[in-house]
């Protein structure tokens, strides 16, 4: 993993990243790289970094267990972090007192079912499509930066498409 980590570190610095997450890389394993991807998700989304092809070539489906998908079928329950990239498609659900933070990007399609006291925040980007059915007690929150959404139930939409950074 050290060579891949060094390549990623240099690519991130080239894109303008400089923070402790980038400079303090020793010899990270896949779990650590996945954690760093999620911790730096705002930078990754803004710079489309690393590319979907890079993720697929160097990690394949290894990232699924950490909630990161590229051009894959997505299924899961009560996933704390979920990043859906490329042309992934699938369905996830949350129940009990679960918390989920979901990012849906590129041309992905995702169905989200929410029950009970679960709290789910979703960020929608690019040309993705998200369908949310909230049958739970808490509000689901969607930050719409692009794409399309269909909602049913208690869902708050915050349209961010026309705001400048």
Strand count: 11
Poorly predicted tracts of residues? none
Strand content bin: 35-45%
N- to C-terminal distance: 34 Å
What's the helix count?
5
Helix/strand class = alpha/beta
Radius of gyration: 16 Å
Mean pLDDT value? 89
Major sheet characteristics: 6 strands, parallel
Globular, elongated, flat, extended or rod-shaped: what is the shape? Answer: globular
Reading the helices and strands in chain order gives: HHHHHEEEEEEEEEEE
The helix fraction, in percent, is: 25-40%
Strand order of the largest sheet: 1-3-5-7-9-11
What's the quick description here?
This protein has helices at 2-14, 20-23, 30-39, 41-47, 52-59, and strands at residues 68-70, 73-77, 81-85, 89-94, 99-104, 109-114, 119-124, 129-134, 140-144, 148-153, 155-159. By secondary structure, it is of the alpha/beta class. The strands form two sheets. Strands 1-3-5-7-9-11 form a six-stranded parallel beta sheet, with helices on one face. The protein has a five-stranded parallel beta sheet with strand order 2-4-6-8-10, with no helix packed on it.
Could you characterize what this model shows?
This protein is about 25% helix and about 35% strand. It has about 160 residues and is an alpha/beta fold. The strands form two sheets. It has a six-stranded parallel beta sheet, with helices on one face. The protein has a five-stranded parallel beta sheet with strand order 2-4-6-8-10, with no helix packed on it. The radius of gyration is 16 Å and the shape is globular. The relative contact order is 0.10.
């Amino acid at each position: 993993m050290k060579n891949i980590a060094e390549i990623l570190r240099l690519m991130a610095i080239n894109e303008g990243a400089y923070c402790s997450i980038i400079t303090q890389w020793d010899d990270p394993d896949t779990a650590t790289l996945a954690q760093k991807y999620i911790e730096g998700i705002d930078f990754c989304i803004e710079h489309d970094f690393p590319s979907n092809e890079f993720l697929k070539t160097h990690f394949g489906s290894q990232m699924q267990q950490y909630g990161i998908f590229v051009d894959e079928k997505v299924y899961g329950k009560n996933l704390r972090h979920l990043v859906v990239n490329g042309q992934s498609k699938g369905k996830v659900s949350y129940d009990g007192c679960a918390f989920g933070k979901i990012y849906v990007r590129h041309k992905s399609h995702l169905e989200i079912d929410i029950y009970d006291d679960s709290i789910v925040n979703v960020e929608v980007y690019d040309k993705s499509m998200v369908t949310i059915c909230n049958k739970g007690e808490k509000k689901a929150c969607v930050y719409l930066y692009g794409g399309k959404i269909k909602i049913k139930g208690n869902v708050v939409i915050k349209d961010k498409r026309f705001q400048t950074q």
